[in-house]
Amino acid sequence: MSERTPVRAVKAVIPAAGLATRFLPATKAVPKELLPVVDRPVLQYIVEEAAAAGINDVLLITGRGKTSMVDHFDPHPYLESRLEAKGDLTRLAAVRRTSDLAEIYTCRQGEPLGLGHAVSYAESHVGSSPFAVLLGDEFTEEDSPLLPGMIDLQAQTGGIVLAFIEVPDDEVNRYGIASVQTDAGFGDDIVRVTGLVEKPPIGEAPSNLAVVGRYVLPSGIFDAIRRTKPGSGGEIQLTDAMALMLEEGTPVHGIVYRGIRYDTGMPLGYLQTIVQLASQREDLGPAFTEWLRDFVGSLPAENAEGNRA
């Protein structure tokens, strides 16, 4: 019998139908995914991450008031002609690049009923092939990519591949946490997952490995989602569907990510991301960091209780 020919994921799904209530009122009319990080929206960083991993087909799961996400990746002939006429070739190239990153498709989730429910909308688009899921509020540093290794591992195993970060023991109750075996046979930072638990109480977590927003999934996930009952918050949870597949024998592995993960899902993380990336820019970094040092140095000191000194 011939060995199984590995099938690599070449499509990505970005669930982006949420209401983004943490950013109201800014997100009343502007999708959270289009909030700018310096001069690019969050969503563009994520599509760039997918494109750099060899994915050129991206499906956005959108909702009410989110059509502008698709517009961002469309060509804009009038804007391009104006920039060309002005000789602003740098911005012209940046604008054109957005429409060259990938083929962007969209479908509409009528009501956000959980991550598993959102992913289920991708079935007709991805068919029987494995695919990546990238959550729409986080991305990784360009020089330390995560997704290519996840795609390679999924092609080898045919199962589910997750991304983990190590979190402090007193924060495990904020995440989905995995129980793992470290002798997975694939090298350092790759573990075999033996169980998943959502937001365990502090002191009861099986590890400090937290699931973060990158998944590479086989097409069997769609049947598992159909058989998954509403869980946390009365929603169809992707974690529950993956746990079902694990129980039924699907191999589940994880890669422990050691690079920088930018999490823009909360206002604090969003602001931190802007500061970090602005500081790294050749055109902005030197002047920005000089101002930032002066600004931080001018702030009133605080005592241990958090009161102004």
Strand content: 15-25%
- Radius of gyration of CA atoms, rounded to a whole number: 21 Å
Major sheet size, sense and barrel closure: 9 strands, mixed
**Multimeric status of the protein:** single chain
Apparent shape? globular
How far do the termini sit from each other?
75 Å
In order across it, which strands form the biggest sheet?
5-4-1-6-11-8-12-10-9
Instruction: Pick out the low-confidence regions.
Output: none
Summed over residues and divided by their number, the pLDDT gives a mean of: 90
Run of helices and strands = EEEHEHHHEHHEEHEEEEHHEEHH
Tally of individual helices: 11
> What is the helix content?
25-40%
DSSP summary, beta strand count: 13
Class of secondary structure makeup: alpha/beta
Task: Tell me what the structure shows.
The chain has eleven helices and 13 strands. The protein is of the alpha/beta class and 309 residues long. The N and C termini lie far apart (75 Å). The protein is globular and about 60 Å long. This is UTP--glucose-1-phosphate uridylyltransferase.
